[in-house]
Specification:
By secondary structure, the chain is mainly α. The protein is built from six helices and no strands. The protein has a single domain, classed as Cytochrome c-like domain (Cytochrome Bc1 Complex, Chain D, domain 2, Orthogonal Bundle). GO terms for molecular function: electron transfer activity; heme binding; metal ion binding.
Length: about 140
């Protein structure tokens, strides 16, 4: 009986250590930190940068396409994102928010697996509005 209890305890400890190490090895803040848009992307102008309500127009789009990986609040904690490598970016992080609108638009357009490319499935207008949605997430 003691051996059975001991074996279960060892297995539980091993599982707990494994889970802890998996989270330590892939912090959300650093996910995808080496993915950089080309310099010319910074020159792209967001046609909706002065429209404070542009993000509202793609709220449903974010919920349908992005929540599954990036989570409701954009923290990179969506249910499907847990299984991805690299982990989805925390869209509210300083690392993401300090990028230019053009760089974010470029990333939405081109993708970088496992991040999908939305060039064919979303209009240019929708992708720019999603940039505004990502900006909005940081203000919540």
């Amino acid at each position: 009986m003691f051996t059975s209890f001991f074996n279960r305890a060892v297995i539980l400890i091993a599982v707990a250590v494994g889970i802890t190490l998996s989270f330590a090895a892939s912090p959300r803040e650093d996910s995808g930190s080496n993915w950089v848009a080309p310099a010319e992307a910074d020159k792209l102008e967001n046609p909706f940068h002065k429209d404070p309500d542009a993000w509202k127009k793609v709220e449903d789009t974010y919920k349908n396409l992005c929540v599954i990986c990036h989570g409701d609040k954009g923290h990179g904690d969506g249910i499907a994102g847990m299984a991805l490598t690299p982990k989805p970016a925390n869209l509210t992080s300083e690392r993401v928010q300090k990028q230019s609108d053009g760089a974010i638009f470029w990333k939405l357009t081109n993708g970088n697996p496992p991040m999908a490319s939305y060039k064919e499935s979303l209009t240019e207008e929708q992708r720019w509005q999603l940039v505004n949605y990502i900006r909005h997430l940081a203000s919540e």
